[in-house]
Write a structure and sequence with these properties.
The chain has 188 residues and is an alpha+beta fold. It is built from 2 helices and 11 strands, in the order H-H-E-E-E-E-E-E-E-E-E-E-E.
């Protein structure tokens, strides 16, 4: 008698779980159908048709002529080592560079556009967070990089392979951070 009661309880539990799972399945199908059939809307705001058309071109696009510079062997001396990188805006909208960082305090960078130089970024200079370069479409600017071979003190090794990285922070949607690399061997 007791086994018959246990069997009935097991069957009731089994059917209860089965009904619960069936209800979850039906609800899932119903919810999915509502999501698929609901319309997707986008809100576009513009003060005039001309403004709407002006925003429809290609975004700002940064082009770097050469992102890695190998400057060979340099001697450790108090003289700064300098090199530069040229970049252009090949997009249809203004390219904005709003910050530059360097990988080490021994390296600093300045942007030169139309003869005007930005504040110094990196190196031993305070961070220049208020700077913003607006580079119109088709225009070119230069990142001037300086490396101080004595910044870390007297070198112990005869030769050291070095790489210093300069990062540009841009509004280019495909390249929000662009890295420039300076490679060299530093000799005593």
């Amino acid at each position: 008698m007791e086994s018959i009661i246990n069997k009935k309880r097991e069957n009731q539990m089994f059917y209860g779980i089965l009904i619960f799972l069936l209800l979850v399945f039906i609800y899932s199908i119903y919810s999915l159908t509502n999501v698929i059939s609901s319309p997707i809307t986008a809100h576009v705001t513009a003060d005039s048709p001309d403004e709407l058309l002006s925003n429809s071109g290609a975004p700002s696009l940064i082009e770097i002529k050469e992102s890695i510079k190998d400057i060979g062997i340099i001697k450790q001396s108090p003289e700064l080592i300098k090199t530069s990188f040229e970049f252009s805006n090949i997009g249809d909208k203004d390219l904005i560079i709003d910050y530059i960082s360097t990988s080490c305090m021994c390296t600093s960078a300045v942007i030169n556009y139309n003869g005007e130089k930005s504040p110094v970024f990196g190196g031993k200079s305070p961070t220049s967070e208020d700077y913003e370069l607006v580079l119109p479409p088709g225009k070119t600017a230069t990142v001037e990089v300086s490396y101080d071979p004595m910044a870390h003190g007297i070198q112990k090794e005869d030769r050291q392979d070095m790489v210093r990285v300069i990062t540009l922070y841009t509004n280019d949607p495909s390249s929000p951070q662009v890295q420039l690399r300076v490679k060299f061997i530093q000799a005593k």
